[in-house]
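Slack export, channel: ligand-projects

TW: morning all. Re-posting the request from yesterday since it got buried. We need the structure predicted with the small molecule present, not the apo form. The ligand is ISC; the SMILES is in the block with the sequence. No rush, but it would help planning for next week.
GE: picking it up
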Amino acid sequence: MLAPRQVLEQLKARLAEGIERLPLASARGAGGEAEQDLVSLLLALPRVPSSLPQLAGAQFQFRHVHRDELRAGYGTAAEWRAQGTDRLRHLAASGRALRAHWYRADPDETGFEAFAMLGFAASPDPSPMIEDHLPNALLWVPEIGVRASEGAAALVLSAPRPSTPEALLERWGAALDALVPSLYEPVEGPRMAARLSREFAEPDQSGWAELVEAALRAIEADSLQKVVLSRRLDVTGTRRFDVDRLLGALSCLFPSCQVINLRRNGSSFIAATPERLLRQQGRALEVDAIAGTADRDQDTAADTALGEALRASDKNLREHRFVIDAIREALQPCCSDIRAPAKPQLMQLSNAQHLWSPIRAHAEAGVDLFDLAERLHPTPATNGQPRHEASAWLRQGEPFERGWYTGAAGTLEPDLSGELWVLLRCARVCGNRAELYAGAGIVAGSDPATEWDETEAKLRAMLSALQYA
Ligand SMILES: C=C(O[C@H]1C=CC=C(C(=O)O)[C@@H]1O)C(=O)O
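GE: finished. pasting the full token output, ligand included:
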């Protein structure tokens, strides 16, 4: 097996030759310079990375253990930000312009593609409080991307053009020096469990009960059918949280979830989410409807009984049905062959089990990830039904801003297909502080105390991992 130094030397030796294959002069004439031209060079990595290091500066990571997939991005080759109700339309315009001007070379025939990160906060409303960490909505092409699946891996080096071979050799050479040796460092194991102190909860349990009662009154009055309420919990640890270890612990505890890290301006937004907003591959779509939750039990018979009770629960099935119906309605105008299973399946995680309906559909020609995100987000799994009434009710009723919690993030391919995950089971982590978020769907028949316990179970996902980070 090649040593990290040899991997770096091999990549650097191939850099100049790879750069020669890129068209570096701008092909655009006068008047066509408003949007960004990009070049990307893909280089095979002779070894799959064992770790994704936390380097200084902006970076993102997506790792899914069961799917054996990882994607990471470091630094910035290009980015676009947007906010307000048209945020996705603005980013779509940039993405569509980029699609026609993104030149890629894959001299090693890795078969991988270049990629960008697309993500956005729960609400399109601009917020200075959140802006200092992540902008409201962001399309971000990293300077150096890492991509691995099924035992193969590649680096994707990207830069704006026009450029020169000398400039790229210097810039990408430095980026490889900073990243490659640390891709093969041994993964740090978990530490002894640290004590976490609960510092601040919004709402507290009695405020939560009032909020649930108010939601039930709105449902009784027929102005809402479902609304998803959430809470924020701030904790401090007895030591600084180590983001690498935290991501490792989450991947270990939740191997069927997408573990995400979005790091900018000194803090990390971290999630281990079971819910995919959508995956588009060509014209094939997969969308998850996840809603309806029960606890787990260490005793197998008791655990099975909890799962069976969940699948038979009228309240949970109604909560779930709103999500399926809204997804169908959102996809109908631009998709055909929309198929949902007759009955929801059970998705079992280490802290909770959910009702889950994987929905499949076929997108019409020309429909891309931006269109689909705009139509689907937010589903009643995180917002409510009807959509606009539930958003308006939450804006008035919820005592804090959700920020990126219940927003979405994922990766976009140059053909504008890709994958987005709903940002659940998440925390914003900075030093020894973490802000955690969790919510629960309220429908007629919901009980405030049971819903509180459900949010506690959801918070446990991140709390248990933070202890070992
Ligand atoms: C809003 C959250 O979960 C959603 C996703 C799955 C199950 C849910 C539920 O049963 O209420 C929620 O709709 C959260 O985890 O914060």
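GE: first-pass observations. The chain has two domains: 4-184, 196-467. The pocket of ISC is lined by residues 228, 230, 275, 290-293, 354, 381-382, 424-425, 438-441, 458 (CB under 6 Å).
TW: perfect, thank you
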